Amino acid sequence: QQVGLTPIVLHGAGPQLDEELAAAGIEKQTIDGLRVTSAPALGIVRRVFQQQNLRLVEALQAMDTRATSVLSGVFSARYLDRERYGMVGKVERVDLAPIEASLRAGSIPVLA
Q1: How many domains, in total, are found in the chain?
Q2: Which SUPFAM superfamilies does the record cross-reference, listed alphabetically (predicted)?
């Protein structure tokens, strides 16, 4: 922002997710390089991504950087192959409105 650019941040949470799933007794499984996500794991996935998103936004704000958490309403997806990959999806549409609203407010959108 100090140089006139406002980035859009899209983050993951792989290591934190691995740790939380292991603590819940859910073994990590990958097929074709994709993490298989079971229905029981999905709640943990959502929680971990939300936690990491808020941590990142808070860290940016602590450095006097305007940042906005954008956790929903951006990506529309369909299941990739539910039998093979579980709850894993493929993004089919991106709604830019929440991202653009953050940018118009001079804030970095942080997406999970």
Answers
A1: 1
A2: Carbamate kinase-like
